[in-house]
Backbone:
């Protein structure tokens, strides 16, 4: 091997190690954040505060799950959405204990996004799905949620979330401000996305954005 | 009920405090939070914990894994915590046999789930060891009742211990009060129930072991083991390629008797073997009068039944007598009578189902059902209705009520084949059934309690599956209580003649065509092939060769893709330009197999079944490698 090749191989090893170490540290820091909030839970007696803490714990987990999808030998820094979104939905489902009257049907294409966009999509899905299930179960209805993520053409990404309850839709029509709806709108703005409403297959939202190249 | 005591070993205050609050709320008492290995050992010394939570990365030079090794020796169970769950980490964790693994960041519910799995395993383990103790004690009493010459008795004792403390070699030494050796024999295992005795030349008692009062185990280490066993004995064991030893010191009148069990396996013995032997020692001492006394009068009845040790027939259908296969039999004999779940690991075509069947046959559930389900190739919705059943009208198409496989397996065994292929969505439900022993039919309103034993099998590396997010970590630790590794055929080539005979007999029974002999070069061809498809492939290869065979002697073997290769072991290319990439090899190999099968992919003699892979996998491989089959 020439000296150059050796140098490149050495740099690559170092780079891989750094990626690995970085991922490790991100997870450790997220654990500290999660633990801080969890500790706070033990000292709060107000139901409203407890719910708010839980909501934010869930959001931190949405971040953590994105980093958990990066495989052992993968140093691209990209998040595979076809693993991330299903994992996220499993988490949401588990936080409601196992419910038989909940049907989630993700249809996620193999799209890789960088961490910022992936997490924005992750939080949007989390907010919409969690609140839909919550309001559906409150009315003891059968909840049917469809989530799809597809690539249209070269780099247009389309996220469709619809449900038989119409929560995600009413979110934008009621005119009342809430954190979930503000988060969805704000993160959609980050993605430079357009938000459309849909009435096919139950009421829902379509969020379209360009994947940066 | 007394609270379970936990030790937390975590050097980050916020995380440690969070853990403490979570587990205390769940009813555990925390004996302390340690920030380093030494602190942890001090705390454990003061109050023995029932379980420890260990962060893998800790302050100081030593890691959680180093601490784990010490805890293993002290028989303190533990769960790891780590932000890293790569296959490599899981693999190095495995050697310390943890009771669980929590990946950071974790939620309180993840902590509680891991604790409940660990508790479940500990509870079962305590039941198992009590059961083994009772069984072994009554077997020892039985043995004591039978009058036999000393040597015969030792051999019988060895056969009895074999099911509890698997060994390839048993050493028996007797020393009088002055440390002079009065008898020394070794028994070397040559078959399932056959031992060859070796006279040992031992002149005097080894230096250390005369002070030894408790049983212990160690890996073979020339320096340590030679001091413990004496140089001559240690040489004998090294010559026999033993890796691990367990020494049981016994005192009888003023003599000292030392039993040495040795195994070719790496770390076959653990703290629980020591616990078991310590528990039965009082009975063993009691019966020693009968077992070890050469001058005893034959006044006792000889009509008492021989202890019920499962014989070779319990493993009918599993052919071979290689040391690695015998070890599998030992593990089956150990685990079969217990209620423990078993995880069978091995490449495809190694006969995992046969192993599962023999575990069922040797258990006290043998009268109950044995239900097999192949988890591969079912989408989540279908496999759940297969496993749990459904009520009429539970979903579109559910026109009548259906009883699931779990319910069918009540009072028996359920065999979850290809568990590695189970969809993630269903894994959490399986975990719940395993933990709570109850199921809920889809669309049903009530739960049904079940009494089932679970045996799971996979040809995948579950640690890699976990690391890549395709398999749940908690389910992995729930299933991996008693893993049995089935050796691939290439690691037990000495079994090929017996297997060949077996398949020839089966062929004769089916077709009436009788083959009397197998030519030596045909046999050596079989023994020089690497058998990627294992026994299933051997069966197919023999079948084809037998069909082609003219006359009553099998002259030639038709191996897939390597037509008439000379039996010289793996081929090596002479110069680098001859070297082919793995992909090229794979392509060539697949093409040759397809040719042999006339392009047939699936079905009984199709390429997929010869290769021992599902037809769908073959299909996607062909597409990936750009191989076109006829009709495409």
Residues:
């Amino acid at each position: 091997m020439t000296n150059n090749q050796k140098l490149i191989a050495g740099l690559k090893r170092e780079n891989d190690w750094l990626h690995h170490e970085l991922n490790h540290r991100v997870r450790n820091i997220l654990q500290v954040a999660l633990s801080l909030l969890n500790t706070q839970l033990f000292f709060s007696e107000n139901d409203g505060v407890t719910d708010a803490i839980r909501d934010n714990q869930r959001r931190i987990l949405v971040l953590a799950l994105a980093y958990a999808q990066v495989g052992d030998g993968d140093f691209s820094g990209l998040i595979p959405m076809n693993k991330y979104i299903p994992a996220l939905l499993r988490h949401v489902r588990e936080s409601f204990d196992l419910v038989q009257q909940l049907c989630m049907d993700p249809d996620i294409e193999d799209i890789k996004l960088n961490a910022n966009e992936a997490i924005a999509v992750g939080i949007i899905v989390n907010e919409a799905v969690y609140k839909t299930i919550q309001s559906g179960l409150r009315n003891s209805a059968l909840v049917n949620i469809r989530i799809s993520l597809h690539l249209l053409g070269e780099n247009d990404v389309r996220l469709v979330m619809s449900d038989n309850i119409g929560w995600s839709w009413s979110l934008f029509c009621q005119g009342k401000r809430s954190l979930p709806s503000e988060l969805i709108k704000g993160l959609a703005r980050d993605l430079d996305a357009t938000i459309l409403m849909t009435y096919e297959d139950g009421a829902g939202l379509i969020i379209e954005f360009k994947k940066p190249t | 009920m007394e609270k379970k005591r936990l030790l937390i070993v975590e050097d980050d205050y916020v995380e440690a405090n969070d853990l403490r609050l979570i587990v205390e709320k769940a009813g555990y008492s925390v004996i302390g939070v340690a920030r380093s290995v030494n602190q942890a050992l001090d705390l454990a010394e003061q109050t023995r914990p029932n379980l420890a939570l260990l962060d893998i990365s800790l302050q100081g030079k030593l890691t959680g894994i180093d601490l784990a090794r010490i805890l293993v020796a002290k028989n303190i169970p533990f769960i790891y915590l780590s932000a890293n769950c790569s296959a490599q980490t899981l693999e190095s964790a495995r050697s310390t046999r943890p009771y669980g693994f929590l990946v950071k960041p974790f939620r309180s519910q993840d902590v509680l789930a891991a604790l409940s799995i660990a508790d479940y395993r500990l509870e079962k383990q305590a039941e198992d060891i009590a059961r083994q103790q009772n069984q072994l004690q009554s077997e020892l009493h039985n043995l004591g009742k039978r009058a036999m010459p000393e040597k015969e008795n030792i051999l019988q004792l060895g056969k009895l211990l074999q099911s509890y403390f698997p060994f390839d070699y048993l050493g028996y030494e007797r020393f009088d009060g002055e440390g002079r050796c009065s008898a020394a024999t070794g028994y070397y295992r040559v078959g399932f129930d056959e031992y060859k005795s070796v006279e040992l030349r031992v002149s005097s008692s080894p230096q250390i072991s005369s002070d030894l009062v408790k049983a212990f185990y160690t890996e073979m280490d020339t320096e340590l083991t030679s001091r413990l066993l004496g140089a001559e004995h240690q040489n004998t064991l090294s010559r026999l390629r033993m890796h691990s030893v367990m020494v049981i010191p016994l005192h009888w009148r003023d003599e000292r008797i030392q039993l040495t069990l040795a195994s070719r396996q790496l770390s076959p013995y653990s703290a629980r073997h020591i616990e078991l032997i310590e528990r039965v020692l009082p009975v063993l001492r009691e019966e020693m009068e009968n077992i070890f006394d050469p001058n005893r009068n034959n006044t006792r009845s000889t009509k008492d039944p021989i202890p019920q040790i499962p014989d070779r027939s319990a493993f009918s259908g599993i052919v071979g007598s290689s040391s690695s296969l015998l070890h599998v039999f030992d593990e089956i004999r150990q685990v079969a009578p217990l209620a423990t779940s078993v995880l069978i690991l091995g490449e495809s075509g190694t006969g995992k189902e046969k192993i599962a069947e023999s575990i069922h046959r040797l258990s006290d559930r043998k009268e109950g059902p044995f239900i097999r389900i192949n988890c591969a190739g079912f989408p989540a919705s279908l496999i759940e209705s297969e496993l749990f059943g459904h009520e009429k009208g539970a979903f579109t198409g559910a026109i009548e009520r259906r009883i699931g496989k779990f319910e069918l397996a009540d009072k028996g065994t359920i065999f979850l084949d290809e568990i590695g292929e189970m969809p993630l969505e269903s894994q959490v439900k399986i975990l719940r059934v395993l933990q709570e022993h109850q199921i809920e039919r889809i669309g049903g309103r009530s739960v049904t309690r079940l009494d089932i034993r679970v045996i799971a099998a996979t040809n995948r590396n579950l640690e890699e599956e976990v690391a890549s997010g395709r398999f749940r970590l908690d389910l992995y630790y729930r299933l991996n209580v008693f893993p049995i590794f089935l050796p691939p055929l290439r690691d037990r080539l000495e079994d090929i003649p017996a297997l060949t005979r077996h398949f020839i007999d089966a062929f004769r029974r089916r077709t009436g065509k009788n083959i009397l002999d197998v030519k030596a070069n045909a046999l050596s061809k079989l023994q020089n092939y690497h058998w990627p498809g294992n026994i299933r492939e051997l069966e197919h290869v023999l079948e084809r060769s037998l069909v082609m065979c003219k006359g009553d002697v099998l002259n030639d073997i038709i191996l897939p893709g390597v037509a008439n290769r000379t039996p010289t072991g793996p081929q090596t290319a002479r110069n680098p330009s001859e070297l082919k990439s793995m992909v090229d090899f794979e392509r060539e190999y697949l093409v040759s197999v397809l040719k042999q099968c006339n392009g047939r992919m699936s079905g009984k003699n199709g390429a997929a079944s010869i290769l021992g892979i599902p037809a769908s996998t073959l299909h996607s491989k062909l597409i990936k490698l750009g191989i076109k089959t006829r009709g495409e």
Q: What stands out?
A: Chain A touches chain B at residues 24-25, 27-28, 30-36, 38-39, 42, 57, 60-61, 64, 68-69, 71-72, 83, 86-87, 90, 94-95, 98, 100 (CB under 8 Å). Chain A has two domains: 1-75, 77-213.
